[in-house]
From TrEMBL:
Recorded GO MF terms: cytochrome-c oxidase activity; heme binding
Entry's family note: Belongs to the heme-copper respiratory oxidase family.
Keyword Ribonucleoprotein among record annotations: no
Protein known as: Cytochrome c oxidase subunit 1
Annotated compartments: Membrane
Residues of the Cytochrome oxidase subunit I profile domain: 19-517
InterPro entries: Ba3-like_Oxidase_I, Cyt_c_oxase-like_su1_dom, Cyt_c_oxase-like_su1_sf, Cyt_C_Oxase_1, Cyt_c_Oxase_su1_BS
UniProt keyword annotations, A-Z: Electron transport, Heme, Iron, Membrane, Metal-binding, Respiratory chain, Transmembrane, Transmembrane helix, Transport
Organism: Haladaptatus paucihalophilus DX253
């Protein structure tokens, strides 16, 4: 047995670099989260409320896009090389995508943070959904475009590695981790088309002044065409870890490899034709298409429900290997002192709740109650903010030693860190869900209105605000502990085998399962057809109604923009 860094030293360097970018973004993004959590609850306001959108944009972009996707880039590189048992075919390409994604992310971050310095005449306080007519500096959109192209190149890198492997192993089943990476990347190629078109053909020319007007509904729809699949682009790295690493950490083996393949195929097929479930309240899209999006979304619950079954069954198998008994008593013998295990298990537990609030979002009629309220941030702090983020941090405790050849600085601090995240998120997201039900809006610096008070039927609004602020503080503390632990781990003395990186074979392997599961071309074709069915007519009618470039001029977010808007209306 040898360590990943000894076997693939070049790839280990790239992965360490992607993790470094990911964790820097995590630190800054979490700090922004603390500022805004304290601001909107009214406890501490260190910045004027006019800067709230700058901080919120930074928080969303740095955490939801940079932290998660750079982690994915590293994790997928690790997964492809170790499961194909071969280095990447062209390490220059690997460094090229790392360079492009990092430069793109840096450009976007500069454009956002510049908004805090009025003298710079640059801002991007458009939130991470960059809805028109909010307009950012061109550097923001150019950075986004570079970042996306970089991820496409990363996908190409992994596909090339697979092609080489395939030529040497013509009759073998695709190794599971590579299968997961490839299906996720096909989904990514299909879905990023939407955002790429909207950034390259509309936002960049518009922000540069080449075109004067934009069609907000068209760019919103193209955004959500990508915006729903991106949530699975965040989730699939977590699933990769839950399916292939969590069973091992539990002391057992994956319950079923074919079932895992079915799950990833379902995500490829169903992730994209559902984006309109973010637009139930958008006028200009016919109800029938919203209904189709809802139906597809309900089907899309299936792969996560299958995951809940398979992953928990694998954990139970692990527990029984360790001597666990009874219907539920086996839970007690799981390795709860291991931060990698506990972090992932708690992340899964929270995802069960997050999936539940997702089901509520997805219902067209109930969505009207929660849309644009704090409920929605409550939902996504359980999903991307915990299922994904906590799994990634927990995974780092197991992966980083394999990349550096150094042991983790402190397991007790790691354990305390993952538990702090869990407790902080229980407080914050529960209060956010409840606040949303009272109608308290999201994306609002000062959610108080004159002559109107939100009233809670259970508890009080003050108590909800306190829970959100305490939760935000605990989450920030947790990130600081995580970064501190990883940083100190990197200066430990190298040792021979800081962690056992082997992954045992699944209980039920791929051989014998239908070969069609591995037919990526077939699944890609069906996914494309479903996208065409769901999107061609809505997009055509949006363009017919308001034209390709629309009639809407840019609205700057600052107060003079408000006056401008009043002028336009007058
Ligand atoms: Fe969502 C809004 C519907 C999943 C992220 N979602 C958002 C936004 C984000 C987001 C960021 O239909 C806000 C966007 C914005 O800024 O406006 N979401 C769903 C549905 C699912 C779902 C149906 N969302 C996610 C995931 C995300 C994410 C995953 C990120 C990673 N969401 C919506 C809708 C909206 C929305 C509407 C629009 C709301 C609006 O009005 O704006 C489903 O995929 C959820 C399925 C999940 C389950 C749970 C299965 C349970 C498992 C746990 C296993 C347990 C383990 C551990 C492993 C059915 C797999 C066991 C432990 C032991 C100790 C035993
Ligand atoms: Cu969605």
């Amino acid at each position: 047995m040898s360590l990943y860094v000894d076997e693939y030293p070049e790839e280990a360097k790239v992965i360490k670099a992607t993790f470094l970018v990911s964790f820097v973004a995590l630190g800054i993004g979490a700090f922004f989260g603390l500022i805004q959590g304290l601001h909107r609850t009214g406890f501490v306001r260190i910045l004027p409320s006019t800067d709230y959108y700058t901080i919120l944009t930074g928080h969303g972009v740095l955490l939801a896009l940079v932290f998660t996707i750079f982690y994915l880039l590293g994790l997928f590189t690790w997964a492809v090389t170790r499961s194909l048992e071969s280095p990447l075919p062209n390490i220059k390409l690997t460094w090229a995508w790392f360079g492009l994604t990092t430069t793109g992310a840096t450009f976007a971050a500069i454009a956002i943070v510049a908004g805090l310095f009025p003298s710079l005449d640059m801002s991007a306080d458009v939130l991470y959904t960059f809805y028109a007519p909010l307009q950012a500096h061109p550097l923001f959109y150019v950075g986004l475009a570079m970042f996306i192209i970089g991820t496409w190149m990363a996908g190409a890198d992994w596909f090339l590695a697979f092609r080489k492997w395939r030529s040497e192993h013509p009759d073998e089943r695709i190794p599971l981790q590579t299968f997961m990476v490839l299906t996720t990347m096909v989904m990514w190629y299909l879905s990023t088309l939407g955002v790429a078109i909207s950034v390259v053909f509309f936002f960049i020319p518009w922000s540069l002044g080449f075109i004067d007007t934009i069609n907000p509904l068209l760019t919103r729809t193209l955004f959500w065409y990508f915006g729903h699949p991106v949530v699975y682009f965040w989730l699939m790295p977590a699933y990769l870890l839950w399916y292939t690493v969590l069973p091992k950490l539990s002391g057992g083996r994956l319950f079923s490899d074919p079932l895992a393949r079915v799950v990833f195929v379902l995500f490829l097929l169903l992730s994209t034709p559902v984006g309109i479930h973010h637009q139930y309240l958008d006028p200009g899209i016919a109800e029938g298409f919203k209904f189709i999006a809802m139906t597809n979304t309900m089907f899309l619950l299936l792969p996560s429900l299958l995951t809940a079954f398979t992953v928990v069954a694998s954990m139970e198998h692990g527990a029984r290997q360790r001597g666990g008994k009874g219907y539920l008593r086996w839970l007690g013998v799981l390795p709860w002192r291991d931060p990698a295990f506990t972090g992932m298990a708690l992340a899964g537990l929270m995802f069960a709740a997050g999936g539940f609030s997702g089901m509520i979002n997805a219902g067209m009629n109930i969505n009207y109650l929660v849309h644009n309220t704090l409920w929605v941030p409550g939902h996504f702090h359980l999903t991307v903010g915990t299922a994904v983020a906590l799994t990634m941090m927990a995974g780092a405790y197991w992966l980083v030693p394999q990349l550096t050849g150094r042991r983790l600085y402190s397991r007790p601090i790691g354990l305390f860190q993952v538990v702090t995240w869990f407790v902080g998120m229980v407080l914050m997201s529960n209060a956010m869900h409840r606040a949303g039900l009272l109608g308290i809006p999201r994306r609002t610096a000062e959610p108080q209105y004159q002559s109107f008070d939100f009233t809670a039927t259970i508890g009080s609004v003050a108590e909800l605000r306190a829970q959100i602020a305490i939760g935000a503080a605990l989450l920030f503390l947790s990130v600081v502990l995580f970064l501190f632990n990883i940083l100190l781990s990197s200066i430990e003395d190298p040792i021979e085998m800081p962690v056992d990186g082997r992954i045992p074979a699944p209980l039920s392997g791929a051989s014998g399962s239908p070969v069609v599961l591995d037919n990526l071309k077939l699944w890609t074709a069906i996914a494309a057809i479903l996208v065409i069915l769901a999107y061609v007519i809505p997009l055509a009618s949006i363009i017919r109604d308001a034209g390709l470039f629309g009639r809407t001029v840019a609205v700057p977010v600052l107060i003079d923009g408000f006056n401008l808007l009043l002028g336009v209306i007058a």
